[in-house]
Amino acid sequence: MALRSDWSGELCPIRRSLDVLGDPWVLLIVRDVLHGPRRFDTLRENLGISEAVLSRRLASMIEAGLLERVEQPSESGGALRGYGATEAAVELLPALQHLAAWGERHTPLPEGGAHMALIHLGCGGETESAEQCTACGARLSAEELVWDRPWREVSPPFAPSGTIS
């Protein structure tokens, strides 16, 4: 991954976490794969990342237990290969939501930008938490949430498995 020291053997859990998650591409890949399994080309296009960088990040994320390779039948009868979120990646959803909220509060919104919202599919309300809906109080799972990113179409629910796109 990044060119720095190996922190995997450190006692500090923050250092060990950063050893896996410290590269910004890793969190952006997790964000996209949480919407359901993604194919390599779709990730490359959505993220604007080079093939070489994406290939290295995906390999390291599989090794770290964040992603898994998945195959699903295609309409043409063959199999589509992609990358799916593991439970470890799904558990990052609250942290990603906190990062998004922090970014909205503490970084300037570029001209033409709009508020990104986490929507609970059950009640249709915006929630400030990925763990418990602040609109209706229901306990949430990744499958019950979508990010409304106004600069893109509304994303499908987060899920450790689903249709590859």
TrEMBL record:
Position of the signal peptide: none
Transcription listed as a keyword: yes
Sorted UniProt keywords: DNA-binding, Transcription, Transcription regulation
SUPFAM superfamilies: Winged helix' DNA-binding domain (SSF46785)
Transcription in keyword set: yes
Family matches, as InterPro entries: ArsR-like_HTH, HTH_HxlR, WH-like_DNA-bd_sf, WH_DNA-bd_sf
GO molecular function: DNA binding
Domain HTH hxlR-type: 12-111
Residue intervals passing through the bilayer: none
Protein's name according to its UniProt entry: Helix-turn-helix transcriptional regulator
